[in-house]
Structures are given as structure tokens and as C-alpha cells.
Inverse folding.
């Protein structure tokens, strides 16, 4: 299957599964981070990311998206640790936003 044949989620999964085992994870991470970067402008338009007190709650989201791109290209233990911290920070922001919305 060629990359030009990818038309939907099923064909993407089929293409990824046909990749050599050592390329499958990094390619999947790269595609996921690119998808996140494409929707990031829509996420940042949401006013809940920019509270009235000036606190920059979008920063953990930006950090998580940025580090995922690096993790796909350079999977080291330091990057894995940074990715874990970024994911935890983004989760904390989401949890706090849910708590405020109630």
C-alpha cells in the first residue's frame, strides 16, 4: 500500500501496520503530533484557555504538543521524562478547567 492510498482511518491503520516494526511507533507519533498541531489554533481560540487573571493556561497544551513532536524524532529517556511532565501538566490544566466550569 502506498501513502497516496490513505483515504480514511482504516486505510491509515493498514498503512501503518505495513511499516517495518522499528518505524511504526515513530511514524505514528509523528502523525499524531502533526494532527495536534493542525487543530491547535482552534483550541487556542477557546477563551477558557485564557483566563481573565492573565494566567497562561495554554502553555501546558503548547508544551505537550511541542514535546510530542520531539519525542517522535528523538526518543531519549530525557525526552520521555519531559513528555510525561508535559502530559501531566496538560491533564492538570484540563482538570482545573473542568472544576472551574462547574
Amino acid at each position: 500500500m502506498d501513502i497516496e492510498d490513505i483515504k480514511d482511518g482504516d486505510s491509515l491503520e493498514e498503512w501503518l501496520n505495513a511499516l517495518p516494526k522499528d518505524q511504526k511507533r515513530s511514524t505514528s507519533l509523528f502523525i499524531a503530533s502533526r494532527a495536534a498541531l493542525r487543530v491547535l489554533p482552534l483550541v487556542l481560540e477557546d477563551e477558557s484557555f485564557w483566563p481573565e487573571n492573565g494566567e497562561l493556561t495554554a502553555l501546558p497544551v503548547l508544551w505537550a504538543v511541542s514535546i510530542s513532536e520531539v519525542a517522535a524524532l528523538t526518543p531519549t529517556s530525557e525526552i520521555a521524562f519531559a513528555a510525561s511532565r508535559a502530559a501531566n501538566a496538560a491533564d492538570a490544566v484540563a482538570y482545573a478547567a473542568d472544576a472551574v466550569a462547574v
Q: What stands out?
A: The chain has a mean pLDDT of 76. The chain has four helices and no strands. The radius of gyration is 16 Å. Helices lie at 9-18, 21-45, 58-73, 77-101.
